[in-house]
Amino acid sequence: MTAVRNVAIAGSGVAAMATAIQLAKSGVDVDLFERKTGLTTVGSGISLQGNALRVFDALGVWEDIRAAGFPFEGLNLRAPGPGAPIVAELPDVKTGGPDYPAAMGMPRSDLARILHRHAEQAGAHVHFDSEVTGVIQGGGGVEVLLNNASAGTYDLLIGADGVHSAVRGLVGIETEPTPTGMGIWRAFVSRPAEVERTELYYGGPVFIAGYTPTGDGTMYAFLVEKAQDRQGISAEDATRIMLDESRAYGGPWNSIRDDLAAGAAANYTWFTQHLVPAPWNRGNVVIIGDAAHSCPPTIAQGAAQGLEDALVLTELLVTRDTLDQQLWDDFHARRLPRASAVVEASVQLGQWQLDGVRDADVPGLMFSVARQMAEPA
């Protein structure tokens, strides 16, 4: 017996697909609705910490994820300048435990395809070009409106529809993401053989320059700057700006610039932050993942926290008999403290850079959160 028999999920990101996989595997009838016309991703690559890899194993997708990505251990810090010397080689806390790499990178498009395939194999029904435009609660269920027409009544609607969640607004949750004051350029480029782990450069014309390997011959590069209005610029100008802002950084950045000069696409987004206070549910509707919390990727925990939301929620839904207040209390008790710790630490790390604080204990804060994440959610 499960607490739900049929569930609607809004969104198609990692939290949405993870939820669909787990519920469908347990015999729940799952309809996943995505407003876009197909699988599309924003950005280039994604960094996944060990606690995210642990969730992938619980989903039954870890072998496919590992084969498509680039696992690694540790973190290098390099100095700006022509030689880009490595100034520190830092170990990572293995947040997933000893059975998993400390971290890995992979193309976002590959991750999306793998999760989508497993969701459908588990029995979930994935519907594209289907925007959730209304919810009507009553009688112990929720009627979901798609493109302003009824799609039927479900025991539960899960809003895993991202930072700009429609479901969040439809149920009257007023918390919204706010800019942190930083913006990031990203580009998908070739990987020089010397890059075997994430490397970061602090200082120079931007706050952080870095890159993460995503495969045998690929990586994604990024530059974190003070947030600027970059709307409306052409693709050519975006690539030129990223190329120009990277000129203070040597080492593997020389190869990155060659790719940018050859036309590698650059995209730009602002960092945001928000944390919806408990409860994340309103009756038979709940939000998870980026809909419930967002933060700068300064400790690369965004995807992991969405995956943990999905795993904890589905565990409760398939092991309880009733969708009652005790279930929601247990969900919030397990998720709010961890999500809050990640949001607060991620924002603090960025704020120290914005404020020019030079004596901040950055490693101490990062390792403190990592140790907390090493305990299963």
Task: Jot down its keywords.
8-stranded mixed beta sheet, D-Amino Acid Oxidase, Chain A, domain 2, about 35% helix, FAD/NAD(P)-binding domain, alpha+beta, about 30% strand, 6-stranded mixed beta sheet
- The CATH architecture of the largest domain can be given as 3-Layer(bba) Sandwich
Q: What kind of sheet is the major sheet?
A: 8 strands, mixed
Please estimate the helix content. Answer: 25-40%
**CATH class (first level) name of the largest domain:** Alpha Beta
Instruction: Count structural domains.
Output: 2
Spatial ordering of strands, largest sheet:
6-5-14-15-16-13-17-20
Count of separate DSSP helical elements: 10
| Beta-strand share of residues | 25-35%
CA radius of gyration is: 21 Å
Query: Distance N terminus to C terminus?
Result: 23 Å
- Order of helices and strands, N to C? EHEEHHEEEEHEEEEEHEEEEHHEEEEHHH
Q: What structural category characterises the helix and strand content?
A: alpha+beta
The average pLDDT score comes to 96
The CATH superfamily of the largest domain bears the name FAD/NAD(P)-binding domain
Instruction: Describe the global form.
Output: globular
**Poorly predicted runs:** none
* CATH fold descriptor of the largest domain: FAD/NAD(P)-binding domain
Number-wise, the strands total: 20
Summarize the SSE layout with pairings:
Blueprint: E1 6-10, H1 14-25, E2 29-33, E3 45-49, H2 50-59, H3 62-68, E4 70-72, E5 75-78, E6 86-90, E7 103-107, H4 108-122, E8 125-127, E9 132-138, E10 141-146, E11 149-154, E12 156-159, H5 166-170, E13 178-190, E14 198-202, E15 208-213, E16 218-226, H6 235-245, H7 253-261, E17 266-275, E18 281-282, E19 285-287, E20 293-294, H8 302-319, H9 325-354, H10 362-373
Parallel strand pairs: 1-2, 1-12, 2-8, 5-14, 12-19
Antiparallel strand pairs: 3-7, 4-7, 5-6, 9-10, 10-11, 13-16, 13-17, 14-15, 15-16, 17-20, 18-19
Helix pairs in contact: 1-4, 1-8, 2-8, 6-7, 8-9, 9-10
